[in-house]
Design a protein that fits this description.
The chain has 455 residues and is of the alpha/beta class. It contains twelve helices and 16 strands. The longest helix has 20 residues. The protein starts with 11 loop residues before the first strand and ends in an 8-residue tail after the last helix. Pfam families: PFK.
Amino acid sequence: MANTSSISISNIQLQHLTHITDYLNTLQNYTNPLDKNPFYHIVPGFYLTPADIVLRNNIIDLSGTFQSPTPSLAYHRAGPRKQILFNPSTVKVAIVTCGGLCPGLNTVIRELVVGLWEMYGVREIFGIKAGYRGFYSYDPVLLNPKMVDDWHKRGGTVLETSRGGFDLNKIVNAIQDHGFNQVYIIGGDGTMRGAVKIFEEVKQRKLYISVVGIPKTVDNDVGIIDRSFGFQTAVEMAQQAINAAHVEAESAVNGIGLVKLMGRSTGHIALHATLSSRDVDCCLIPEIDFFLEGKGGLLEFLEARLKESGHAVLVVAEGAGQDIIPRTESQKTEKDESGNLVFLDVGGWLKSELKNWWSRDHPNELFTIKYIDPTYMIRAVPANATDNSYCTLLAHSAIHGVMAGYTGFVCGPINGNYAYIPVDEVAKAKNKVDTKDHKWSWVRSVSNQPDFIRS
């Protein structure tokens, strides 16, 4: 057995976090106003330094059986710094929400406004309407704590959002023209790719502007960070749809409850909702291939389950089965405003296929299938308590980093500790369900579904 009495970690690679002084080296520092804030106690360790880091991988196999990543990646820890780079009296903030809706958007906006106002004394805080196009198409909306006081109780985004509309030069020109020197961008992976371009253009122009991304996606498909805000609310809401499907299926002869949940490229919501529910008989996610007909297929499994229990509940993520749904030539290349391939309705297709199968193989037997798509109900609800707290920590982490002069980063928890991650890393990373992981094994043990490997 390895001697573990003394452990040292070597070969750590601290990822570079851009600071505005990297390209503007004549700027003045200011003492953090938290020094005089009566609500904070400035004890030793309150202010963080560049030496405070968060390891991306905190699990190490001392036996050497499994090779740990070399070098170990690390990121700067999020939190307040003793010296800041912005004079709060000259700060002018822009906050924008982009892409689809997600529980917690209004909470993040609220906490950015209140945090900037109360912690740092910033008074010029503006909301950008309608996503990226709002920078050059609409007048900014002046925000204050009283105005946003109850926003965390509301679903959607009060600032409004949209997809597309990304015109780099128009956006950066508008940021300059309005005199914004802090830009907070809230959105998913496509939005973060846009944030990378804005940050790079700001740096290219050598502007005294900090750009930060706050990752948002109900699907929890943002890489590197532990989870994205809104995800836990989505799983909680998905339970209601699954419960309804279970009641409908159980109340019918040969009843099937079919629920389609969000998850274009990842099946995290479907996976966690299945584990939480325990009423799901089969869970289909984008990370696994499945087929309908033949030995080991979905139809064979459902027939056995109906014969055994008289009912079944089927949960499918929206991105599952896209490769087996028939497409027209135009549908093969059709894209939405964000540049994503338009997905066909796997739920509607499955419902049709299941009805055809039963009428073909069991023409004289009763059969009922109820299809529930709670997508917009889940996206539009306010964040639950857990996500609300998380949104507050994200907002405050972003504020501390920006005020300290960092730029081109995303804030988020890594192994439970909040860190600053270069936005380009986050824009490229994906958080896929690992079907070799124990969580997917739990799903299959709960549902007893096949692995859909053809004989």
